[in-house]
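Regression check, adenosine-3',5'-cyclic-monophosphate case 140:
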Amino acid sequence: MALQRTFSIIKPDATERNLTGAINAKLEGAGLRIVAQKRLHLTKAQAEKFYEVHRERPFYDELTSFMSSGPIVAQVLEGEDAIAKNREVMGATNPAEAAEGTIRKEFARSLGENSVHGSDAAETAAVEIAYFFSGLELVG
Ligand code: CMP
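Current build output:
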């Protein structure tokens, strides 16, 4: 597998509890390199655009309200097989189902407030990275 990039968000429930460093330690410990990172406070409209694919889901309003309720940290992670590796270290979307040692098992509060987001495929990663970062901001 070639070197790959994926997009990651440390969500408001985690920034609120000062967990950015602890989560970054997990990511770096898994062999992922943080090649871009910035802290932002999204507007509701910006969160809605990011989660556009979920617009028809019943939890869309709850999700986008939460994602615009406090600061987030947007990141680009690089590594061998980075998309799958990040999803492994994040753990299952629902923390009740997440494996021991994963970010969500250790830190997530609930299905909605689950501490991190990670791209699910190469195409999504490219779109999500471009939504938050310019090429000049990716420093490998
Ligand atoms: P994420 O990886 O950011 O992608 C979409 C998010 O929707 C997901 O993580 C969850 O946090 C959230 N989500 C999924 N299902 C529900 C649900 N039933 N209620 C609230 N939020 C949900």
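Comparison notes: Helices lie at 12-16, 20-29, 44-50, 60-67, 82-90, 103-107, 122-132. The first strand starts at residue 3 and ends at 10. No diff flagged against the previous build.
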